[in-house]
Amino acid sequence: MPSAVQQDPGPPSMRRSLGVKDGVAIAASSTAATTSIGIGMGALAAYAGRQTPALLLLAFVPILGIALSYARLNRSEPNCGSGYTWVGRSIGPWPGFLTGWVVLVGNVIFMAYTGAVTGSVVLQFLNKLGLHSVGGLRLDPASTGISTAVGLAALVVVTLTAITGVRAATRLQMGLLIFEYAVLLIFCGYALIIGDQPFSLSWLNPFEIDSLQAVAQGMVLAVFFYWGWDAAFSVNEETRNSTDAARGGLIALVVMMGLFLVGALAFQRVMSTGELLHNGPQALTFLGGALAPEPWASLPLAALMCSAFASLQSSVIPTARGALAMARDRTLGPVWQRVHPRYGSPAVGTLLIMAIAALLAVLAVGIPKLNDMILTAVNSIGLTVALYYGLTALACAVRFRASLRAGVVRALRDVVVPAVSALTLFGLGLYLVWDYATMSDHFELSPDNGWFMLLLPVLFILAGLATAAWAKWIRRAPYFRTGQGTDADAITLPMDGDGGPLPSPVEG
Q: Given pLDDT bands bounded at 50, 70 and 90, which one contains residue 11?
């Protein structure tokens, strides 16, 4: 094949404009600590009781090992495909493709679910401000239809900001983060001081959790809490220095651990376990009302709304860039690699991600069973997150196995810690698979049916394998011969007549 003219997919000033603080903003927004604390602590307490802080600390250990694996791989091969690229090269193209596929599917489902949650939080905030109807339409936060409509509007807004460039998006996210973290720390700090529930060191003792099953289920859920810090690695090729992404992701992860711990301790200082379970998704709102009069009591709800917006936006960014990495390897269609000539962002892919998530959210309103499926998928995402985190850490251990002969420090950093972290997550995942398979004696379309909860991750993986087979034998993607992802700085992307990049001319 004749070679085509090399051309960068967007202005260099836009593509290399991000620094460490931008990586922190993307990773922290994607992790959405305020949302996890505000609506998820009750779910963790259902498994761990008063040992929820201990569970969060315990889950942080393998996640830190995974993060160090990401950082090591990133130094060796910065690529917006991150796990998809690294696993493909180190272990093989099939597990590599599954790593990328799981991230894409998980994020789209998460966005479909989070859109409705964002809409509900916005409506709650409007109700707090005294606005209960518009043009005769009742703004009911409990209405799935109204909440979804507002959530879709929010999804459109955050998608447009993501298209205009990651730099613009991170500026918005940093402002939201500063506000929500300030509110969170003030209220949680105050709760730690005046709470009437006596503090106990047993709260930090994971050995007091009732059963191994509770530890495994709680750990996987806690891993889902931390999920998102790796979004910083999806903008490798838009950072001034590839190590900035690693620093941003690691800083955000440590900050998230601190916030989760403070939030869990604060909730338990104010609420008994029964109260925490009863309040569930409204726990942060309850905390605000218990500590301050209006209008100050509404500040935690405002922080939750900002967190939901930031999380929605930060889910769009890594998903579109992951699809871009896969498309330039021809494992996905060429439409996903069309980069905006002005902003240097994968605009078409970003719009497609938004459209698919919006379609799922709309269908869930009209088909109650689909809504159950999406809820169950969110509950099951922890399994798939454990899978792709574990595969990426294992890729690090395999790629740098020669470090075993290079001294104790390098062996621990490059091989032992990644391998132990991977095996820990694989073990948790396998235990949870066994638990789901044995918890129900029949199949039912219900979020609490074990067979149904197990079916959805299996369907995700089977759909990924089918897509991979199409890419290998129909598209003849070179990725399935070498397992190596395309270097973004070497990819051929000639401009078409409208100023947009054409599909890569590389033939299989």
A: very low
Q: d(Cα 249, Cα 29) in Å, to the nearest integer?
A: 11
Instruction: Please work out, in degrees rounded to the nearest 5, the angle formed at the alpha carbon of residue 190 by the alpha carbons of 188 and 196.
Output: 95
Please give the distance of CA 151 from its chain centroid, rounded to a whole number: 18
Strand 133-134 and strand 137-138: the pairing is antiparallel
Using the CB atoms, write b or e for 305-336: b if 16+ within 10 Å.
bbbbbbbbbbbbbbbbbbbbbbbbbbbbbeeb
Residue with structure tokens 């740098």? 400
DSSP string computed for 115-178: HHHHHHHHHHHHHHTT--EETTEE--TT-HHHHHHHHHHHHHHHHHHHHT-HHHHHHHHHHHHH
Residues 276 and 157: beta-carbon distance below 8 Å = no
The CA distance from 440 to 449, in Å, is 6
Cα first-last separation, the chain: 11
CA nearest neighbour of 63 among 230, 267, 223: 223
Could you tell me which residues come within 8 angstroms of residue 375 by beta carbon, excluding any fewer than 6 positions away? 113, 447
Q: Which of 4-18, 57-71, 216-230 has the highest mean pLDDT?
A: 57-71
Any alpha helices (H) in 281-298, and if so which ranges? Answer: 283-291
For residue 472, what is the enclosing H or E element?
helix 450-473
User: What would the two tokens of residue 492 be?
Assistant: 């051929």
Q: How many CB atoms lie within 10 A of CB 359?
A: 12
Tally the C-alpha atoms within 13 A of residue 226's C-alpha that lie toward its C-beta.
Answer: 32
Write out pLDDT tens, residues 40-97.
898 899 889 999 999 999 999 999 999 999 999 998 888 878 899 999 999 999 999 9
391-410: b or e for each residue (b if 16 or more CB lie within 10 Å)?
Answer: bbbbbbbbbbeebeeeeeee
Neighbour count for residue 200 (Cβ, 10 Å): 12
122, 116, 115, 231: which is closest to 173 by C-alpha?
A: 231
Q: In the structure encoding, which two tokens stand for residue 480, read together?
A: 């399935």
How do residues 411-451 score in pLDDT, each as one tens digit?
Answer: 999 999 999 999 999 999 898 889 889 988 888 877 778 89
Residue for token digits 């087979």? Answer: 469
* DSSP string over 9-35: SS-HHHHT-B-HHHHHHHHHHHHTHHH
Apex 373 CA angle, 263 and 218, nearest 5: 35
CA distance 354 to 108: 8
Place of tokens 């090399």: 6
